[in-house]
Design brief:
CATH architecture: Orthogonal Bundle
Number of domains: 1
CATH superfamily: Globins
Length: about 180
């Protein structure tokens, strides 16, 4: 068994899924479905607009320099597409491969967790606004789409939190030796 901060990604994913099952946070099955595809398509089709609105909101809050904005915008756009791929097919874990690397060496490793998670939360809210507008006349579909989005967002938050803490614990152990 690996120390907690050296857990394999597969073990990490299995553990988080076990927590979600045990806490009854998995309302929707963990395999492709028409609803998952519909939500993923919805996100992909609106990703550019979501990211543009998001960057306009977070740039002054995070005091981003103008020269940083194009790269951060592209990174968030790419991340949103990876997340949509995972929503559509939960066995596609590329989004968590990237998150683990960013938690260890990238953007997340240089930010406070609240900064990163507040940005993720805003992305979710921007998607929610668009879902509500699109499905205003189809209450059942809106509820299903929102519930699936929330399930996937909760999963993402759990992964981000764990990956960030584990990366920082590992750095602490390495710097102590």
């Amino acid at each position: 068994m690996h120390p907690p901060f050296e857990e394999t990604l597969e073990d990490h994913l299995t553990r988080v899924e076990r927590y979600m099952r045990g806490c009854e946070l998995l309302q929707f099955p963990r395999h492709p479905s028409p609803l998952r595809t519909q939500l993923a398509i919805f996100i992909r089709e609106r990703a550019a607009g979501v990211v543009d609105e998001w960057i306009g909101l977070i740039a002054p809050v995070y005091t981003l320099l103008p020269k940083q904005i194009p790269e951060i915008r592209q990174n968030m756009y790419d991340a949103l597409l990876r997340w949509a791929a995972h929503i559509e097919n939960p066995h596609d874990i590329e989004t968590y491969v990237y998150l683990r690397e960013h938690a260890r060496h990238g953007f997340i490793s240089h930010s406070s967790p609240s900064r990163f998670l507040s940005g993720q939360t805003k992305v979710r809210l921007l998607i929610v606004q668009r879902l509500r507008a699109e499905y205003a006349k189809d209450r059942k579909q809106l509820v299903d789409m929102l519930n699936l989005l929330d399930q996937e967002f909760y999963e993402r938050v759990l992964h981000i939190t764990d990956l960030t803490l584990r990366a920082r614990c590992k750095k602490g152990v390495e710097s102590a030796t």
